[in-house]
Amino acid sequence: MVKEFISQLPPDKLSPFAKHPYRVREDAAMDELVESIRVHGVLSPLLARPKGECYELVSGHRRRLAAQKLGLPTVPVLVREMSDDEAVILMVDSNLQRENLLPSEKAFAYKMKLEAMKRQAGRPKKNQSQVATKYDTASVIGHESGESRDTVFRYIRLTNLVPPLLQMVDDGRIAFSPAVELSYLTRDEQAELWDLIGREDATPSLSQALRMKQLSREAKLTPEVLYVILTEEKPNQKEQVRIKTESLRKYFPRNYSAQQMEREIIKLLEARYRAKDRGER
Question: What is the pTM of this model?
Fold first, then answer.
């Protein structure tokens, strides 16, 4: 029988979950949550488990921050005893259905859940390989998340990217499919690629990423070869206006991705064009 109880606990007594893959962003959604809690209070208890003299938060990291912003002395918490793997699975599942999850968040969440479920399953049964067990587990995760087994594995591949490249995926500067292929490069090759991207203001297409992956496997992806591939003119880059993201940052909220900035710029240009068109009539 699961031991659990509801208690009013100070937010500072709740430590974030270890290696929590989801970012707690201070954005417009957080402002709305703060205002909702200010008016209605915390309607749904947070979920935590005992951890030494304090408690480890399993679900409710955004509500915890909102409560801290409001200076609430306590919040309602469902305290439940659970194993490490049970806590990981609950933590991942409680956030996977959120809108606007970043690729890196899904990547590390899927990886943590896959590893926890494999540990729960234990050693493979007779005549069943570890690979088969891994694929079966990924199928379950995909089914629960509304994605295919292969998509789950492709997201998990992103965890092999060096942090600067993974950040570019989150920012929308590197597309998902090329990013998956780039994850097969060695860390040194990835570091060299990131440096080249910054210097040349160019990102690899899927075709280029596939070539880099193949050459990496053949131990032929030298810095010179990387440069030649990356600086090739792509068909969709001809006569393209390129503005460095850093030049635009000061005009947008800090949590905006490159794609969000592009959409806002297009909206402003369209509004200006309509206003000019009306003025000329």
Answer: 0.74
Residue 181's domain comprises 161-237
Residues 71, 2: one domain?
A: yes
Of the residues 21, 56, 82, the one at which a domain ends: 82
Residue 267: predicted pLDDT: 84
Q: Which residues contact 260 (CB under 8 A, 6 or more apart)?
A: 172, 252
Token pair of 197 as six digits: 């991207």
CA–CA gap between residue 102 and residue 23 (Å, rounded): 9
Tell me how many domains the chain contains.
Answer: 3
Question: Tell me: the pLDDT tens digits for 23-52?
Answer: 898 889 899 999 999 999 999 999 999 988
| Same domain for 43 and 75 | yes
Are both 220 and 253 inside the same structural domain? no
What is the C-alpha to C-alpha distance for residues 267 and 129, in angstroms, rounded to an integer?
A: 54
| pLDDT tens digits along 54-74 | 899 999 999 999 999 999 999
For 52-135, strand residue ranges (E) read 54-59, 75-80
Strands (DSSP E) contained in the chain are 4-9, 14-15, 46-51, 54-59, 75-80
